[in-house]
């Protein structure tokens, strides 16, 4: 831990550092895990800074190295700590430069030392591999340059913290190769207790010759706090006590450095220019030293030592670690540092084992001297300010955000509350303080706008969704709107304006009367899609921006519009998924384009949309942009969403990182408004966001109320119920919300001034009702903001051609002449029965047609994927090898999605009756039998090429459905009986049947790949077939298989949670152990010293991560799904492997598919992956 002395008043109470450059301070606020050590380097001063212990431990699922002061106790909660951390894996560390010459061999002495082992009783909850992993990280770090000249380091993984202390005279590589290796062997044989320590201490050793390792598995912050206490004790040359057991760990040959007695006067000291005969030779006092020890190290008698140091009163009772003492006659040298030639102060880099008295003694100073030197200081490297300049203003944060005493920037009270103790850079214990731009008040808002704007965004694509359609012409009646933003126009690759995708609505938009007509460009998709993001990034570059400005302005003028709005999300952003990191110059380039565009537009309007996030707004030169544009659409919404999951920084105070929070939280909105006005934007140019949609979540617990309630899913997958019209989990329109709220639901306004709706027990939605909008608008108007902007006006109410009954969309098939009769008199010659029978026949025919169309579309879309499937998941497959297609596959495919399909059609409002379930199972099994017969009649040799074999299966799908349909209407006794069962009791006389073919297509594609991807893995060269391993622990377990089955660096990516238990999706790559001398870790064939071969990640597994799926979407199947399928298959086969697939030609095997919402999940039980289950911790 390296810091510079310049804030001495704080230095003596809290371990401090100089403020870091503002450009790099916000990264940890988006990611709870610090960077890898191969990125951050071995110098801990470059590691990520944490001031809160909870935040430092948030990344407990990855092993990390930590560095912090050992003499100032860690605070268990809240700010006030200073820890630096990096993520660490042994492989990455060993790739760095190893310190093979940790010390000169000629200066080493090998000493046989007896170490003590202390421990508490074993705790069954402890996961032993965590300790092994944490120890290996320390072992590896000891062998790098990073450990040189330091005494302590910590590692943390899961619930396990490991602390290490090595005295200055103990060679680190000796501890790494001898002591830690022996300790790991012991743990492997005996297991890990709750606490365990190995120490070399006592017997007259001072801190230079003391060393120790502490392992603590106490859950939470206590493990690291306990480790700090042990390391601090060793630093003071004291042994740790209070354990339940102790024993001799063994005698080991430990390398130590030879004693070196030299004059240690620094070159920049202010010692008087006396001859060397006037100064004594000196050594430094170490913790644990007495005067007798010091005399022995000097090589002189005790009486001489007392004589040489007689100028110091009561020396032997006041010895301080770091103090200089004389070993010869002469005066004690003056070790006080002198100022730099330019008048700047001398600085000292503080180490983790330092404390104020030690630093003062080593520099011939008093603690009071250090405090007085640091009353008015600036960070090293700061340009010397003019006289009278406020030092707090020398290194401001972006956007004029608050800067706390650690040099971190932010806009909340944690960063903005000034708790100074007087001297610059100081803060009360337990706070982070604030040194510049403090406060969270809205500023720059003294004058009201000339008129208050009401902006409405119109989604021109809204008629692409199933319902909730609005025609732009309807907005003429919305007299309250002053501006309509038509979203979105596009820029082509050549920077031409394109509205062809929304031309129908655009042509009406041009004729709109009343509100200002503003054409908007960009939006999330055009800004971030992997095939589109580069257009806006290139548009702002110097060589392109003039042409872009001319093209846009010309288009606006040609169509007689009132202005343009640019919604680029977001310039300079380094972390948007699936696209490259943005250019740091984006913000400056954006300003250049806007300046040119404003000039080209003349008097027409120009606006931009800006994020209400410090992290994303930071790259904008927003103060200067505000001088160019007419107004700024400020997106004070989407403050929370599904993306908060597993992100501790998104929801402060949420221990589980997935708390239900409103995306339109008023407190956070006010903070965002303070941020943009403090950045220099006048309030009159800020148009504040309100919404006509809600953010929805699947609650983890029914009936939970309050900010600590949590939601389910992941950061990339919402489990919330989809809106009927919007069709997206996690996002639902106000009109859909109103339709739900009018039924059985619970509704209230919470402390965030948001409307909260809970329905179906666990569906939670935060939104703005009309009354909440009015309340917000009044508040913003009173604060002199320029207006409000609503996303989006077409989400508020049904269009004029719709009504609430259309929330249930009816899809009728009238193309083939087979449609239902509306009235009984249309069939009067055959009577009422004829009416029902005819309509039922029509429904059955339409059902089969829909089924066939679904399969046909899936088959057509899959053909292009087959070669890619082989290339991705079996790239080295021998084309002549057998691709073991499952004999029952086609029948299973037909049965799998036929059952839910008919189930949805025939069931009543209540759950299906037993009779209906039997009929559905009979229908699906009949189709499965037909399909299986077709496949068996056309089976080819197993030597067929892989892609060709897959193509054969997809071709047979449509043929199977055709045969199924033909057999149902053949007219023989069997088909008549079957049709009779279908139409009995009016099951097919329902004229409100909804055919959601898109969901069925998705399900079939997902099932197809769930079966074929594991098959591809079976033939991949160099890998054994994939399998699923049960860790034996619950989902929260960290590293349960590390170093026994898998390497920690790959363990996280192969672990998945299913039904509360952690599983791993693995493959064996090669032999169990590697003894090849040509491979790192190989030993030339010595069976007792070979490198273990761990299970490995499967080929193409990255493509099965939901957040990585895009161009090669594998039907939405994820690795998580495959794990669930393997587990369910194992259960369905009576907890055995090798049972093959479920026979869906039998009606008895359909019960599980007909449970509500179970078809897709449990259907994956047919995944053909073996499972290794029941490993006990």
From TrEMBL:
Its EC number is 3.2.1.14. Gene3D superfamilies: 3.10.50.10, Glycosidases, LysM domain. One of its GO terms (cellular component) is extracellular region. Residues 1-22 form the signal peptide. Residues 452-814 form the GH18 domain. The keyword Signal applies. Residues 281-327 form the LysM domain. It comes from the Eukaryota. InterPro entries: Chitinase_II/V-like_cat, Chitinase_insertion_sf, Endochitinase-like_sf, GH, Glyco_hydro18_cat, Glyco_hydro_18_chit_AS, LysM, LysM12-like. CDD domains: ChtBD1, GH18_zymocin_alpha, LysM. It catalyses: Random endo-hydrolysis of N-acetyl-beta-D-glucosaminide (1->4)-beta-linkages in chitin and chitodextrins. It is an enzyme of class 3 (hydrolase). GO terms for molecular function: chitin binding; endochitinase activity. It is found in: Secreted. GO terms for biological process: chitin catabolic process; polysaccharide catabolic process. PANTHER family: CHITINASE (PTHR47700:SF2), V CHITINASE, PUTATIVE (AFU_ORTHOLOGUE AFUA_6G13720)-RELATED (PTHR47700). Belongs to the glycosyl hydrolase 18 family. Chitinase class V subfamily. Belongs to the secreted LysM effector family. This is chitinase. It comes from Fusarium acutatum.
């Amino acid at each position: 831990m390296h810091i510079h002395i310049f804030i001495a008043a704080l230095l003596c109470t809290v371990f401090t550092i100089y403020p870091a450059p503002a450009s790099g301070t916000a990264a940890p606020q988006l990611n709870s895990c610090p960077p890898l050590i191969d990125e951050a380097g071995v110098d801990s001063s470059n590691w990520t800074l944490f001031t809160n212990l909870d935040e430092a431990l948030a990344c407990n699922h990855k092993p990390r190295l930590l560095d912090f002061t050992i003499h100032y106790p860690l605070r268990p909660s809240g700010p006030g700590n200073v820890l630096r951390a990096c993520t660490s894996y042994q492989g990455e560390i060993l790739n760095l430069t190893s310190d093979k010459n940790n010390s000169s061999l000629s200066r080493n002495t090998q000493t046989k030392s007896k170490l003590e082992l202390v421990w508490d009783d074993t705790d069954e909850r402890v996961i032993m591999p965590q300790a092994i992993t944490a120890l290996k990280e320390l072992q590896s770090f000891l062998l790098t340059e990073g450990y040189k000249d330091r005494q302590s380091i910590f590692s943390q993984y899961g619930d396990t913290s490991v602390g290490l202390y090595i005295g200055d005279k103990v060679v680190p590589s000796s501890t790494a190769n001898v002591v830690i290796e022996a300790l790991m062997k012991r743990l492997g044989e005996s297991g890990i207790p709750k606490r365990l320590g190995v120490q070399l201490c006592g017997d007259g050793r001072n801190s230079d010759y003391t060393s120790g390792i502490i392992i603590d598995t106490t859950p939470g912050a206590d493990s690291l706090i306990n480790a700090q206490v042990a390391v601090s004790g060793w630093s003071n040359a004291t042994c740790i006590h209070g354990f339940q057991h102790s024993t001799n760990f063994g005698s080991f040959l430990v390398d130590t450095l030879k004693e070196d007695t030299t004059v240690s006067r620094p070159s920049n000291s202010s010692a008087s220019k006396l001859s060397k005969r006037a100064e004594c030779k000196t050594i430094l006092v170490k913790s644990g030293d007495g005067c007798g020890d010091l005399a022995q190290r000097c090589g002189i008698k005790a009486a001489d030592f007392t004589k040489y140091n007689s100028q110091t009163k009561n020396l032997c009772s006041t010895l301080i670690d770091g103090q200089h003492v004389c070993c010869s006659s002469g005066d004690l040298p003056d070790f006080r540092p002198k100022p730099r030639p330019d008048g700047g102060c001398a600085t000292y880099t503080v180490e983790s084992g330092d404390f104020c008295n030690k630093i003062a003694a080593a520099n011939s100073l008093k603690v009071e001297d250090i405090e007085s030197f640091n009353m008015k200081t600036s960070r090293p490297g700061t340009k010397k300010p003019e006289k009278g300049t406020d030092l707090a203003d020398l290194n401001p944060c972006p956007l004029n955000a608050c800067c706390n005493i650690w040099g971190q920037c932010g806009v909340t009270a944690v960063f903005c509350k000034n708790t100074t103790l007087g001297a610059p850079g100081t803060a009360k214990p337990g706070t982070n303080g604030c040194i510049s731009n403090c406060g969270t008040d809205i500023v720059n808002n003294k004058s009201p706008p000339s008129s208050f704007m009401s902006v409405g965004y119109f989604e021109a694509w809204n008629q692409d969704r199933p319902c909730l359609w609005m025609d732009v012409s309807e907005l003429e009646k919305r007299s309250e709107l002053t501006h309509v933003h038509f979203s979105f126009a596009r820029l082509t690759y050549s920077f031409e304006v394109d509205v062809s995708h929304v031309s129908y609505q655009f042509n009406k938009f041009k004729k709109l009367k009343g509100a200002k007509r503003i054409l908007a460009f960009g939006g999330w998709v055009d800004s971030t899609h992997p095939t589109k993001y580069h257009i806006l990034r290139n548009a702002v570059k110097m060589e392109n921006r003039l042409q872009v400005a001319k093209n846009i302005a010309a288009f606006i003028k040609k169509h007689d519009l009132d202005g343009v709005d640019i919604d680029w999300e977001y310039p300079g952003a380094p972390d948007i998924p699936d696209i490259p990191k943005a250019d740091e110059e984006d913000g400056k380039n954006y300003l250049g384009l806007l300046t040119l565009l404003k000039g080209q537009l003349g008097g027409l309007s120009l606006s931009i949309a800006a994020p209400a996030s410090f992290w994303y707004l930071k790259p904008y030169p927003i103060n200067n942009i505000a001088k160019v544009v007419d107004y700024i659409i400020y997106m004070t919404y989407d403050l929370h969403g599904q993306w908060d999951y597993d992100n501790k920084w998104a929801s402060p105070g949420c221990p589980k990182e997935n708390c239900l929070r409103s995306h339109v939280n008023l407190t956070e909105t006010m903070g965002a408004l303070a941020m943009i006005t403090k950045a220099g934007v006048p309030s009159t140019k800020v148009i504040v966001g309100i919404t006509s949609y809600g953010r929805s979540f699947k609650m983890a617990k029914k009936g939970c109320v309050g900010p600590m309630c949590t939601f389910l899913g992941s950061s990339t997958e919402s489990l919330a119920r989809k809106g009927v019209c919007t069709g997206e989990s996690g996002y639902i329109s106000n009109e859909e919300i109103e339709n739900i709220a009018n039924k059985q639901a619970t509704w209230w306004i919470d402390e965030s001034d948001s409307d909260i709706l809970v329905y179906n027990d666990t569906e939670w939605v935060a939104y703005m009702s009309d009354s909440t909008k009015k309340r917000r608008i009044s508040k913003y108007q009173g604060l002199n903001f320029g207006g409000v902007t609503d996303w989006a006006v077409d989400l508020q109410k049904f269009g004029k051609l719709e009504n609430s009954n259309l929330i249930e969309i009816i899809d009728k098939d009238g193309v083939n002449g087979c449609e239902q009769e509306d009235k009984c008199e249309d069939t009067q010659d055959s009577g009422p029965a004829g009416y029902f029978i005819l309509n039922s026949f029509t429904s059955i025919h339409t059902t089969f047609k829909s089924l066939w169309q679904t399969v046909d579309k899936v088959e057509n879309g899959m053909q292009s994927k087959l070669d890619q499937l082989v290339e991705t998941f079996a790239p080295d497959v021998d084309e002549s090898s057998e691709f073991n297609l499952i004999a029952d596959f086609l029948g299973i495919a037909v049965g799998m999605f036929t059952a839910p399909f008919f189930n949805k059609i025939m069931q009543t409002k209540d759950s299906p009756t037993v009779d209906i379930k039997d009929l559905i199972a009979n229908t699906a099994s009949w189709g499965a039998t037909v399909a299986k017969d077709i496949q068996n009649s056309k089976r080819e040799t197993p030597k067929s090429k892989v892609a060709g074999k897959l193509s054969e299966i997809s071709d047979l799908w449509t043929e199977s459905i055709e045969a199924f349909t033909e057999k149902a209407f053949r007219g023989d006794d069997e088909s008549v009986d079957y049709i009779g069962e279908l139409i009995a009791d009016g099951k097919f006389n329902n004229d409100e049947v909804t055919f959601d073919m898109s969901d069925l297509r998705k399900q079939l594609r997902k099932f197809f790949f769930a079966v074929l991807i594991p098959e591809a893995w079976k033939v991949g060269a160099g890998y054994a077939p994939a399998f699923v391993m049960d860790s034996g622990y619950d989902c929260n377990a960290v590293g349960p298989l590390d170093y026994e089955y898998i390497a920690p660096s790959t363990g996280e990516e192969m672990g998945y949670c299913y039904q509360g238990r952690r599983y791993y999706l693995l493959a064996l790559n090669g032999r169990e152990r590697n003894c090849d001398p040509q491979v790192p870790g190989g030993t030339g064939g010595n069976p007792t010293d070979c490198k273990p071969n761990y299970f490995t990640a499967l080929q193409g597994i990255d493509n099965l991560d939901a957040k990585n799926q895009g161009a090669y979407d594998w039907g939405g199947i994820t690795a998580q799904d495959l794990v669930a399928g393997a587990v369910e298959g194992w259960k369905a086969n009576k907890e055995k492997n090798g049972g093959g697939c479920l026979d869906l030609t039998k009606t008895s095997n359909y019960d599980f598919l007909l449970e509500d919402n179970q078809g897709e999940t449990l259907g994956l039980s047919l995944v053909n992956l073996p499972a290794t289950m029941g490993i006990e911790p």
